[in-house]
Structure formats: C-alpha cells, structure tokens
C-alpha cells in the first residue's frame, strides 16, 4: 500500500466525519448561525474534493496490483462525498422555507443521515478488509521470496557437493592409475631380479667348474 494514499485517506475520513456532524448541527440552527455553518460545510466539501483528487492521482501512479484495490476504495469515498453534498443542498434549500425545513428534519434528513452513517460504516469495514487482504498479499509475497532464496541456496549447495564428488572421483581415478603403474614396475623388477639370479648362478657354477678343472690338471701332472 502507499503511505501517501493512506495519509490522504485518514485526512478524508476525519474530514467526512466532521462534515457530517456539522450537517447535523446545521439542521437545528436558524438564521445567520445556520448560514455560517453551511458555509463551513461547503468549504470543507472543497477540501474533501481536493483530497479525493489527490488520492485518485496517487492511486493511478501505483502498480496495477495495488491500484485496483485503491480505486475501489476511492469509488466508495466519492459516493460518500456525493451524499454529503446532497445533504448540504437539502439543508440550504430548506433554509428558505421553515415548514420544509421541519419536515426535512423529521423525515428525509434523518433518513439521509442514517443512510450516510450506514454507508460510512460499510466504507470503513471495506477499508479494513482491503487492508487485511493487502497484508496477506504482502505476507504471501514475503514467504514466496524466502522460499525462492532457500531454493537457490539448496541448488548452490548441491552444485558444490557435485563438484566435490567429481573432484574425489578424479582423485581416486588418478590413484588407481598410479597403483597400476607401480604394479607394472614391481613386476618388471621382479622379473629382472629372477633373471639376474639365474645369470649369477650360472657364472658361479662356471667358475666352480673352471676351478675344479684347473685343480685336476695340476694334480694330474
């Protein structure tokens, strides 16, 4: 909701209630006192018109989702203002005829005031319902944004975990390769050692045979 609109709205509601009281007072006054009271009411109606125009401009400058509800409230305020203007016209016209004034006071004016009071009551109730609906919309939007932030955070965590798993997999793959190469090296070394053992054994055997032959020939001579 708009704080500017809310400020104009509070001013209008207070002014409307004050004008309604002045209309009621004007119906029981006579002469100059009545004229003065009607003049005050008319001046107040001008102020009320100005507030209605300001609320209209403010509402139309807001986003569509907010503007619709504010314009609905504004239509009710315009109806309330028209009722007040109608009451002032009746009071003014009754000022020229005492009998008509008495009759209006006893019947029509009382009915008009009751209708106006009922409309203002419904207006305030509608305003309260719209405010509650706006609060629920703001709360729902807040929950939606928090849920969206949570979802983004979870996706980021999952991405980091995936990267960690891929890194661990690559590390294990590298370890497997190193183990395979080590096995090949050890196998080759083992084969070389076995071959060298056979070579050394053959050399030793040849030397022993040569020594024996040398000793044999010496003893023979």
Short structural description:
This protein has 221 residues and is mainly α.
The CATH architecture of the domain at 1-101 can be named as Up-down Bundle
For the sheet with most strands, the description reads: none
CATH superfamily of the domain at 1-101, called what? t-snare proteins
Low-confidence stretches: none
Can you tell me the overall shape? rod-shaped
Q: What is the helix tally?
A: 5
Structural class: mainly alpha
CATH topology of the domain at 1-101: Methane Monooxygenase Hydroxylase, Chain G, domain 1
Order of helices and strands: HHHHH
First-to-last CA distance: 132 Å
- Count of DSSP E strands? 0
Strand content: under 5%
Name the average pLDDT.
Answer: 84
Q: What top-tier CATH class of the domain at 1-101 fits best?
A: Mainly Alpha
Q: Topology, pairings included?
A:
Blueprint (H helix, E strand, L loop, with lengths): L2 H24 L4 H30 L3 H31 L3 H9 L1 H113 L1
Helix pairs in contact: 1-2, 1-3, 2-3, 3-4, 3-5
Q: How would you describe the overall organization of this protein?
A:
By secondary structure, the protein is mainly alpha-helical. The protein has a domain at 1-101: t-snare proteins (Methane Monooxygenase Hydroxylase, Chain G, domain 1, Up-down Bundle), CATH 1.20.58. It is built from five helices and no strands. The protein has helices at residues 3-26, 31-60, 64-94, 98-106, 108-220. Helix 1 (3-26) packs antiparallel against helix 2 and helix 2 (31-60) packs antiparallel against helix 3 (64-94).
């Amino acid at each position: 909701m708009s704080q500017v609109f809310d400020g104009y709205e509070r001013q209008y509601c207070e002014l409307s209630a004050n004008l309604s009281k002045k209309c009621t007072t004007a119906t029981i006054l006579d002469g100059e006192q009545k004229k003065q009271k009607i003049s005050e009411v008319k001046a107040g109606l001008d102020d009320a018109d100005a507030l209605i125009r300001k609320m209209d401009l403010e509402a139309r400058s807001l986003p569509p989702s907010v503007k619709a509800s504010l314009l609905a409230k504004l239509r009710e305020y315009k109806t309330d203002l028209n009722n007040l203007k109608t009451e002032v016209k009746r009071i003014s016209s009754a000022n020229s005829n005492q009998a008509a004034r008495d009759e209006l006071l006893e019947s029509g004016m009382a009915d008009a005031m009751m209708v106006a009071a009922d409309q203002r009551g419904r207006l305030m109730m509608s305003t309260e319902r719209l405010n509650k609906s706006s609060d629920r919309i703001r709360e729902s939007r807040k929950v939606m944004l928090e849920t969206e932030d949570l979802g983004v955070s979870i996706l980021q965590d999952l991405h980091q975990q995936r990267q960690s798993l891929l890194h661990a997999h690559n590390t294990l793959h590298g370890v497997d390769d190193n183990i395979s190469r080590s096995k090949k090296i050890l196998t080759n070394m083992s084969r070389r050692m076995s071959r060298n053992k056979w070579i050394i054994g053959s050399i030793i055997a040849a030397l022993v045979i040569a020594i024996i032959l040398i000793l044999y020939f010496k003893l023979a001579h």
